[in-house]
Amino acid sequence: MADLRFPKPTRETAERRHALAPEADDAFHAFSTAVFAEGALDSRTKQLIAVAVAHVTQCPWCIEGHTKAAQRAGASSKQIMEAIWVAAEMRAGAAFAHSIKALDLLDEENTE
After folding, report:
1. pLDDT tens digits, residue range 9-48?
2. In the chain, how long is the greatest CA-to-CA distance?
3. Torsion over CA: 79, 85, 91, 94 (sign)
4. Which CA distances in Å does 18 have to 14, 23, 33?
5. What is the Cα 22 distance to its own chain's centre?
6. Phi/psi at 38 (nearest 5 deg)?
7. Strands, E, within 12-109: which ranges?
């Protein structure tokens, strides 16, 4: 099995990414700033959502960044863990819900 390697983000990698596509990089940063700005949802709630989504998308950098951001926004360890459990249930729930596809195929198989 190959070794999984998750390099740490650095100033150098950020600068290189920006140099290779400055307009897209600037647009992404502007988008991120707008999304996480206070609005109908407060910053803590947005970061808890981000923690949950990061676990569903399985992005180690997002998990690290948004967990730290959630803490800075005032989320407790219990709130963060609860958000992770919500994510786990949603991921498991999707597998459960999609079982109807297999059941439908099994029904087709049994009628032939």
Report:
1. 899 999 999 999 999 999 999 999 999 999 999 999 999 9
2. 61
3. negative
4. 6, 8, 16
5. 24
6. -55, 140
7. none
